[in-house]
Amino acid sequence: MITPRRLFGDQGEALAAKWLEQQGFTIITKNYQVRLGEIDIVARKEQSIVFVEVKTRKQASFNLGATITITKQRRIGRAATSFILSHAIKNMSLRFDVIIIVGSETNYSIQHIPNAFTI
User: If 75 and its partner were Cys, which of 5, 8, 12, 37 is the partner (CB 3.0–4.6 Å)?
Assistant: First the structure.
């Protein structure tokens, strides 16, 4: 059963993917999941593979550090390592971005934070 919260998050991820494409990124995959973690969006731009965590909120008042904890960053990092190894990625720069979407599906703002954290 899909909860309203999950549906809201899925809508945010779809908006983020569309926005990334408009910015010149190529979406490689969405919701990459392995036992060790999950990555919302894996994209490519030029010679970079970008692992994107999407946060969707109804209101702008939240603490990014509290929502993307060190534990969450480590899980994303482990999933990214799995992705890199399973896709034999070489000679590409890697980065971890965050996209924050605030609002509703029809009235929203997007904030993109490149290199939001390192692993």
Answer: 37
